[in-house]
Design a protein that fits this description.
By secondary structure, this protein is mostly beta strands. The chain has two helices and 20 strands. It is globular, with a radius of gyration of 19 Å. It starts with 15 loop residues before the first strand and ends with a strand.
Length: about 270
């Protein structure tokens, strides 16, 4: 099965094609990809992982990279017996790059991937290309080839299991209430103000619309009593009217190595 996610705009720059375990060329000292074959879960799902190692000072990005950056994307061409694949995202760090607030990882990150077989019980092979952005003073799109036959054993890889545990908490796990949102029209879209619980150590709030045609401006956050008020503007990339689905919103509060993720937002 071939499955390809759309490329980010910065991928208009020339990408560098590199094998996963024997890289050569100018990015030798910047980034390395190792594939963690993982294990087969009791429900038949194959858990694998991409381990990205970066040179000192270099960073790569989370699913929502912020004002500047390139989110990881995968071309699954060459894979066999793959019906779908979903990233499990470790908690990102908050960076400032070129005056922009961004979200991602330094030094090393493992991206767990849950692979759903098209034919349960049959062997699974993943083969394709991981496309990421790596940044220091400049951002460079990099393409990293990978290929592996996934094992059918259930013994867990400790590095991959640790990355799976490094995830955002749900509000229930964090012991806090859900998010409430107020929406009002603007000349070019809508203004969104989310009321979130006060969580000590919060460094940033990220708003994802759940709709690739909708763009959320950088979020401003202020404390009001026992809550945070996070405000943003949401507009349509083609300047069309905005139809915002509150149930599709994802709001993530990111702190020092921790995060709380709110899926959906009740009316304020």
């Amino acid at each position: 099965m071939t499955r390809r996610l759309p490329l980010a705009p910065l991928a208009l720059l020339a990408a560098l094609a590199l094998p996963a375990t024997a890289m050569a060329g100018p990015v030798d000292d910047i980034v390395r990809l190792d594939l963690l074959p993982g294990w087969r879960a009791a429900d038949g799902t194959q858990m694998a992982g991409f381990r990205v190692s970066l040179a000192p000072g270099w960073k790569t990005y989370w699913r929502a990279p912020g004002e500047a950056g390139i989110p990881p994307q995968v071309d699954w061409s060459g894979s066999d017996n793959v019906a779908g694949a979903a990233f499990r995202w470790p908690v990102p760090e908050v960076f400032e790059v070129g005056g922009f607030e961004t979200y991602g990882y330094s030094e090393q990150v493992v991206f767990p991937v849950a692979v759903t077989p098209a034919r349960p019980g049959a062997p699974v092979r993943i083969e394709g290309r991981l496309e990421i952005g790596v940044c220091q003073d400049v951002c460079v799109p990099v393409s990293l080839d990978f290929a592996a036959d996934l094992p059918q054993q259930e013994r867990r890889d400790p590095a991959l299991a640790l990355a799976l545990a490094d995830r955002a908490q749900t509000p229930a796990e964090a012991g806090v209430d859900g998010a409430r949102c107020a929406v009002s029209p603007t000349d070019d879209g809508v203004a969104l103000t989310a009321e979130l619980p006060f969580i000590d150590g919060t460094q940033a709030v990220v708003v994802e619309t759940g709709d690739p045609a909708l763009w959320a401006a950088p979020v401003t956050v202020r404390r009001e009593g026992g809550s945070f008020l996070a405000s943003t503007r949401i507009s349509h990339v083609a300047k069309e009217p905005v139809a915002l689905d509150r149930s599709g919103l994802v709001l993530t509060m990111i702190g020092d190595g921790e995060a709380v993720e709110f899926r959906g937002c009740a009316p304020a």
